[in-house]
């Protein structure tokens, strides 16, 4: 049914349709509306016998999820930013134990400096944890990916993060075709755990493993990710059979067939990139785009196949590996090993900095002309940077960087647009 | 599913117990006990935690008709019982992390509730480090939500698994690897540490008890009582650690008893935040009787002895005796 609905509410209702047994959460902006919605749906008796647990921290949230998932319950939680970092130990543990928990990440920057706005630093920090990571472009896709996430998680017994841009998606009202309960039931079978804590058949989960078997256990976790490379397209195909729309998959391409230059990105910014591609096409420039839906596992083969024969790649990413450059770009280069195809990294949208079409046009033009340094920081105010570097050089006790810059630029928020 | 035990495994109390009235016999004295933490694990000789855990889990099993799920924090109990691929646990058992056992237990309880399995009960357990230090946030959360979990802390008063470092339960003056008695200090400083049983009571949860491996019958009775109650329950068990305390394995029970009888470890029960039962001291002993056999306090008894520190510890014991009324009525 088509509805005009807030992204978070749509996700909450989608989770409810998945018939979770346990939902546990700790509030953090911008994830809050999702768990508020679920709390209300559970209390209203619309989610069967689902237990909604208000916990005292994100570490507890995912720990509760670990316990309930290991007891055979379909389990969901959601977090953002600092919350994901606070639960980091449990993030690795849930994956190591092979527990099919689904968790929404309302993507938000990591401090310091504290910042509630969107970028991908949080989920990227957990990219090697063993969780599958799916990134949504729209609220429709966020809803659809959650349905696929439960099926994928439970089929492979691996946890899945569905990442959606904080505020840009979570707080945006837009049209979403909400699934019907019968459709979800047809798509998502009841959870049949591969391991369950049951007195009738006692097993141990979480034993100590030494050097004699640790490598094999870790390899099998990697192997599970490789299996997901096959499962994700299959589940997306099955999804379109049941729901009648394309959603998910490993990557999605846009007007890239005869493109000379291809732009790669994740999440909601792909919408803006599609518009810019259209406008550049209208101006006679052969550009296209690739959206990476599954960042973990990373679809090396699919990315390589889509880029072979192209002349230039621009990876636009909302995260930064300090001391290196691009995170996504590094993976793209891995996909392109052996090919001589120039890759530009564009770091954009950090801490919620708006990524405007005008800026995208400018940076893509410069990339076409081979003028970009790597990595390129979109709309970086070099004056502000230089002034701070000068201050730091001038005297030893130059003070905190963030506060110095805020003092210089004055009005908070004037850089948002 | 539960492995049957052999008669010789029922322990030396069996014969004496068989003379008792049926309901007064210990769980351990019967060949029907569950043997949930079976023999062959790798605990040290004289390990108080292994002993305490066996009694706790067997009593919990009996009280739940053999239907429990156990959740373990990282620590000695977890490590000595499950070196892969061997396990001593004959019950469904999960270990996740050091600091999250109470929350994992909450999750297990929530899953069981969602599935309508009110016949299966949840037992969380950890050492003092996992419980009162790194896991304290999760423990407090589990308490304040009144989740249906019995959480048992086996308190051996330091991080024994990592090599005897100080915890929030390490007593004053005790030597640990991170509180060495050098540079004029007495070992662990006075005026630090916390009492998790009293903090548990402050949450107003239905049941809190302290227990000791010196009185295993009492420990069983408290676990059995706790298992008969719904909601968050906490049992804090004092367990001797020969390795960390520097005591003879044969002295495990003797030292645990001395801790109770000198007043340093009061035994009591509380319901909904109010103390309901206190176990009186039968034969009061000076703290010296408890401290002297332990190498972790040896620096107090060098020549000349640290009488000031010993007196300060005695004052703590005396304060406990007054506060909890450990000498029975009229002891002030």
What features would you describe in this structure?
The complex is a heterodimer of chains A (417) and B (332). Chain A is of the alpha/beta class and 417 residues long. Chain A has 15 helices and 16 strands. In chain A, the strands form three sheets. A seven-stranded mixed sheet of chain A has the order 3-2-4-5-7-6-13, with helices on both faces. Chain A starts with a strand and ends in an 8-residue tail after the last helix. By secondary structure, chain B is an alpha/beta fold. Chain B has one domain (34-324): Thiamin diphosphate (ThDP)-binding fold, Pyr/PP domains (Rossmann fold). Chain B contains twelve helices and eight strands. In chain B, helix 3 links the parallel strand 1 (68-72) and strand 2 (93-95). At the A-B interface, strand 3, helix 3, helix 5 and strand 9 of A face strand 1, strand 2, helix 4 and helix 6 of B.
State the shape of chain B.
globular
SSE run of chain B: HHEHEHEHHEHEHEHHEEHH
**CATH homologous superfamily classification of chain B:** Thiamin diphosphate (ThDP)-binding fold, Pyr/PP domains
* β-strand number of chain A: 16
CATH topology of chain B: Rossmann fold
CA(first)-CA(last) distance of chain A? 35 Å
Note poorly predicted spans of chain A. Answer: none
* Rg from alpha-carbon coordinates of chain B: 19 Å
Mind telling me which CATH architecture of the largest domain in chain A this is?
A: 3-Layer(aba) Sandwich
| Proportion of helical residues of chain B | 25-40%
For the structure shown, list the relevant keywords.
heterodimer, A: Rossmann fold, Rossmann fold, 3 domains, six-stranded mixed β-sheet, 15 helices, 42% helix, globular, B: 332 residues, alpha/beta, eight-stranded mixed β-sheet, 12 helices, 8 strands
Layout: helices, strands, pairs:
The complex is a heterodimer of chains A (417) and B (332).
Chain A: E1 2-6, H1 7-17, E2 22-25, H2 32-43, E3 51-54, H3 58-70, E4 75-79, H4 81-86, H5 88-96, E5 102-107, H6 121-124, E6 132-135, H7 139-156, E7 160-165, E8 173-177, H8 181-187, E9 204-205, H9 214-243, E10 251-254, E11 261-265, H10 269-282, E12 287-292, E13 294-296, H11 300-307, E14 312-317, H12 328-335, E15 343-347, H13 357-368, E16 376-377, H14 382-394, H15 401-409
Parallel strand pairs in A: 2-3, 2-4, 4-5, 5-7, 6-7, 11-12, 11-14, 14-15, 15-16
Antiparallel strand pairs in A: 1-8, 6-13, 10-12
Helix pairs in contact in A: 1-2, 1-7, 3-5, 7-9, 8-9, 11-12
Chain B: H1 13-18, H2 48-63, E1 68-72, H3 76-81, E2 93-95, H4 101-114, E3 121-127, H5 128-133, H6 136-144, E4 150-155, H7 196-202, E5 207-212, H8 216-227, E6 233-238, H9 242-245, H10 252-261, E7 268-271, E8 274-278, H11 287-291, H12 307-324
Parallel strand pairs in B: 1-2, 1-3, 3-4, 4-6, 5-6
Antiparallel strand pairs in B: 5-7, 7-8
């Amino acid at each position: 049914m088509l509805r005009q609905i807030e992204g978070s509410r749509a996700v909450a209702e989608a989770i409810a349709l998945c018939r979770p047994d346990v939902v546990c959460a700790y509030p953090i902006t911008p994830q809050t509306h999702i768990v508020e919605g679920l709390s209300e749906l559970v209390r209203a008796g619309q989610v069967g016998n689902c237990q909604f647990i208000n916990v005292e921290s994100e570490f507890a949230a995912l720990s509760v999820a670990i316990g309930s998932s290991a007891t055979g319950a379909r389990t969901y939680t959601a977090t953002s930013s600092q919350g994901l970092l606070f639960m980091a130990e449990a993030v690795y543990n849930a994956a190591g134990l092979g527990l099919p928990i689904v968790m929404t990440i309302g993507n938000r920057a990591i401090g310091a400096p504290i910042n509630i706005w969107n970028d991908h630093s949080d989920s990227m920090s957990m990219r090697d944890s063993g969780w599958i990571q799916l990134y949504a472009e729209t609220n429709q896709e966020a809803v659809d990916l959650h349905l696929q996430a439960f099926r994928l998680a439970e089929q492979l017994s691996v946890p899945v993060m569905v990442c959606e841009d904080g505020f840009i998606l979570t707080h945006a009202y837009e049209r979403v075709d909400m699934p019907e309960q019968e459709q979800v039931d047809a798509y998502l079978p009841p959870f049949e755990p591969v391991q369950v804590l049951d007195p009738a058949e006692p097993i141990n989960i979480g034993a100590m493993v030494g050097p004699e078997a640790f490598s094999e256990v870790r390899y099998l976790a990697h192997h599970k990710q490789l299996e997901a490379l096959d499962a994700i397209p299959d589940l997306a195909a099955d999804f379109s059979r049941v729901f009648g729309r394309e959603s998910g998959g490993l990557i999605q391409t846009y007007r890239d067939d005869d493109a000379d230059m291809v732009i790669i990105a994740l999440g909601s910014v792909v919408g803006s990139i599609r518009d810019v591609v259209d406008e550049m096409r209208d101006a006679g420039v052969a550009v296209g785009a690739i959206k990476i839906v599954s960042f973990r596992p990373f679809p090396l083969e699919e990315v390589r196949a889509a880029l072979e024969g192209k002349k230039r790649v621009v990876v636009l990413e909302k995260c930064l590996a300090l001391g290196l450059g691009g995170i996504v770009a590094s993976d793209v280069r891995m996909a392109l090993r052996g090919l001589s195809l120039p890759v530009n990294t564009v770091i954009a949208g950090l801490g919620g900095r708006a990524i405007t079409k005008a800026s995208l046009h400018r940076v893509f033009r410069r990339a076409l002309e081979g003028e970009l340094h790597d990595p390129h920081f979109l709309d970086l105010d070099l004056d502000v940077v230089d002034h701070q570097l000068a201050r730091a050089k001038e005297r030893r006790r130059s003070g905190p960087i963030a506060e110095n810059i805020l003092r210089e630029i004055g009005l908070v928020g004037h850089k948002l647009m | 599913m539960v492995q049957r035990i052999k008669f010789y495994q029922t322990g030396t109390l069996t014969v004496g117990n068989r003379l008792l009235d049926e309901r007064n016999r210990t769980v351990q004295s019967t060949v029907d006990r569950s043997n949930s933490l079976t023999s062959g694990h790798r605990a040290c000789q004289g390990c108080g935690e292994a002993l305490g855990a066996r009694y706790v889990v067997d009593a919990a099993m009996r009280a739940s008709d053999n239907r429990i799920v156990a959740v373990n924090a990282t620590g000695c109990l977890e490590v000595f019982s499950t070196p892969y691929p061997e396990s001593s646990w004959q019950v469904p058992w999960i270990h996740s992390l050091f600091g999250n056992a109470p929350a994992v237990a909450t999750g297990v309880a929530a899953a069981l509730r969602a599935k309508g399995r009110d016949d299966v009960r949840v037992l969380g357990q950890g050492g003092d480090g996992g419980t009162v230090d790194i896991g304290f946030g999760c423990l407090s959360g589990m308490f304040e939500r009144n989740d249906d979990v019995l959480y048992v802390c086996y308190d051996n008063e330091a991080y024994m698994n990592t090599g005897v470092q100080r915890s929030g339960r390490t007593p004053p003056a005790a030597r640990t690897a991170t509180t060495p008695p050098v540079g004029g200090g007495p070992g662990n400083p006075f005026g630090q540490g916390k009492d998790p049983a009293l903090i548990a009571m402050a949450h107003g949860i239905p049941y809190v008890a302290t227990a000791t491996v010196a009185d295993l019958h009492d420990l069983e009775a408290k676990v059995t009582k706790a298992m008969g109650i719904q909601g968050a329950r906490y049992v804090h068990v004092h367990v001797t650690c020969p390795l960390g305390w520097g005591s003879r394995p044969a002295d495990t029970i003797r030292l645990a008893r001395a801790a109770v009888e000198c007043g340093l470890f009061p035994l009591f029960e509380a319901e909904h935040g109010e103390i309901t039962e206190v176990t009186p001291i039968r034969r009061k002993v000076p703290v010296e009787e408890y401290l002297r056999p332990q190498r972790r306090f040896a620096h107090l008894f060098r020549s000349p002895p640290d009488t000031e520190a010993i007196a300060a510890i005695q004052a703590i014991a005396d304060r406990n005796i007054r506060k909890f009324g450990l000498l029975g009525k009229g002891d002030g």
